[in-house]
Amino acid sequence: MATKIRKKKRRKIFFKLVLIFFICVIIFQLVMIQINISKKQRELNELNQKVSYQTEQNDILKQQINSGITDEYIEKVAREKLNLVSPFERIFVDVTRE
Q1: 76 exposure class (CB count in 10 Å sphere: 0-12, 13-18, 19+)
Q2: What is the pLDDT of residues 51-88, one digit of tens each?
Q3: Count of C-beta atoms within a 10 Å radius of residue 8
Q4: In angstroms, how far is the first alpha carbon of the chain from the final one?
Q5: What angle do CA 44, 47, 51 make, to 5 degrees?
Q6: Would you say residue 15 has pLDDT above 80?
Q7: How far apart are CA 48 and CA 10, in angstroms?
Q8: Can you give the C-alpha Rg of the chain in angstroms?
Q9: Can you say how many angstroms the Cα of residue 79 is from the centroid of all Cα atoms in its chain?
Q10: What is the torsional sign of CA 15, 19, 22, 24?
């Protein structure tokens, strides 16, 4: 009789340990999922900011296109952003900059 009672107690303890183990695993998984959700939410916020910035830039470019691009504007962009020069134009560089 005593051995049966011991076996039942051992089984109860074993099942309690197994249950505690599974609960710990589930809690760990939930924490990991929450961490991933937070990370993805931050990435989504960054991407939304980039999208809004790019949308603003597109609107500016559309306004420039609709207002009509002049030759002066094209020349200005070519000189400042693309470092282009007109044919037969001489560029002097000051090498003694201090």
Answers
A1: exposed
A2: 999 999 999 888 878 877 777 877 888 888 887 787 88
A3: 10
A4: 101
A5: 135
A6: yes
A7: 57
A8: 35
A9: 34
A10: negative
Q: Give the number of other CB atoms < 10 A from CB of residue 78.
A: 13
Return phi, psi of residue 32, to 5°: -65, -40
Hey, what's the torsion of the CAs at 3, 7, 8, 13, to 10 degrees?
140
Q: Angle CA(4)–CA(5)–CA(10) in degrees, nearest 5?
A: 95
Query: 43: exposed, middle or buried (C-beta count within 10 Å: 0-12, 13-18, 19+)?
Result: exposed
Cα–Cα distance measured from residue 42 to residue 36, given in angstroms and rounded to the nearest whole number: 10
d(CA 42, CA 37): 9
Where does the chain have alpha helices with state H? 2-67, 71-80
Q: What's the token pair of residue 22? A: 């599974």
